[in-house]
Specification:
By secondary structure, the chain is α+β, with helices and mostly antiparallel strands. It has one domain: Histidine kinase-like ATPase, C-terminal domain (Heat Shock Protein 90). A 4-stranded antiparallel β-sheet has the order 1-2-4-3, with helices on one face. Strand 1 and strand 2 form a beta hairpin. It is globular. The model has no long low-confidence stretch (mean pLDDT 85).
Length: 115
């Protein structure tokens, strides 16, 4: 599931970043999570698009920088897959400046998982 999440997020970064743009992958850890950041300097999202990302009932579909058509299902599946693995997804974005997707993967099993 997590490989599908990262493949989708990287594909989106490529889709929404100009050919001469930048995509950065980084990772950090804290006491609870491994955090993988996928950041681009692409077209970003408007505030209303960003707020709809937090609504599982809402589907976002946008054209990529080369006119690629997306269904908007990828981010919904990413959020669901991350949740199923007891993680979380944080998104920051600003129109015309890019987006940052941070995937939080738990380093330890929760009590619910252990039982």
């Amino acid at each position: 599931m997590l490989s599908t999440v990262f493949r989708n997020l990287l594909s989106n970064a490529l889709k929404f970043t100009q050919p001469n743009g930048n995509i950065t992958l980084s990772m950090e850890t804290n006491s609870d999570y491994a955090i993988v950041h996928i950041q681009d300097d692409g077209i970003g999202m408007k505030e209303e698009e960003l707020s709809r990302l937090h609504n599982m009932e809402s589907q976002i579909s946008s054209l990529g920088t080369s006119g690629e058509i997306g269904t908007g299902l990828g981010l919904l599946l990413c959020r669901q897959f991350i949740s199923m693995n007891h993680g979380k997804l944080e998104v920051t974005s600003k129109e015309n400046e890019g987006s940052r997707f941070s995937v939080f993967i738990p380093l330890h099993k929760t009590e619910a998982e252990a039982s």
